[in-house]
Specification:
Elements: H1 13-33, E1 59-62, E2 68-70, E3 78-84, H2 89-105, E4 110-116, H3 121-128, E5 137-140, H4 145-150, E6 157-161, E7 167-172, H5 178-192
Parallel strand pairs: 3-4, 4-5
Antiparallel strand pairs: 1-2, 1-5, 3-6, 6-7
Length: 193
């Protein structure tokens, strides 16, 4: 059933839709599996995966440090763009694993970007205190401008982007087994270029 929360507009609209979708998915998983996690590729109405298309040329602020980063500035590298939020339970498991991935793959021309959609920078920064140092590129999208362009169907959602800026894969949600699949996708694109 569609609610007003799912159709919310404004700067917090996407965050509200994603929170509602996460809650609905969690409740469905609990009822269907007796409490076990259920990984699904279902997406919200109107979301687009962009697979096979040029990624939107978004610009967002760096979360740590000053300045901005534009996706087109990363052309020539294979990019994993991951949308996350401090309130997202799967993100709490995924982001440190992506950070480890960033360390292993940087020398192969692969850039891992974690983009927070938290409205509050303080919330995102508090989340990051879980680890003393981060190697992946951390961005902040408090008005969800980049997220509104990509329309991630759930949190977290990651996009594998090739060296020419074309989205090759999308991974909606996260389970630990996804990490091997994502790494294989990144390595395959890096080797092909």
């Amino acid at each position: 059933m569609r609610s007003n929360v799912l159709s919310g507009a404004g700067s917090g609209g996407l965050a509200l839709r994603l929170r509602a979708a996460w809650l609905a998915g969690a409740l469905a998983a609990l009822s269907a599996c007796g409490g076990a996690s259920q990984h699904t590729a279902n997406s919200l109405e109107g979301s687009s995966s962009f697979v096979g298309q040029l990624a939107p040329d978004s610009e967002f602020a760096l979360l740590r440090g000053t300045g901005t980063i534009r996706l087109s500035s990363l052309r020539g590298k294979v990019v994993l763009l991951d949308f996350w939020a401090s309130w997202c339970a799967p993100c709490q498991e995924e982001l440190p694993l992506l950070d480890d991935l960033a360390v292993r793959l940087k020398s192969k021309g692969i850039e891992v970007v974690g983009l927070s959609i938290d409205e509050s920078q303080a919330d995102a920064e508090q989340f990051l205190t879980r680890k003393s140092a981060w190697s992946l590129t951390l961005g902040h999208d408090p008005q969800q401008k980049t997220a509104d362009q990509f329309k991630p169907p759930k949190m977290p959602t990651s996009y594998v982007i090739d060296r020419t800026g074309v989205v090759r894969q999308m991974n909606a949600g996260f389970e630990r087994a996804d990490l091997k699949k994502i790494e294989a996708q990144l390595l395959e694109l890096a080797a092909a270029s």
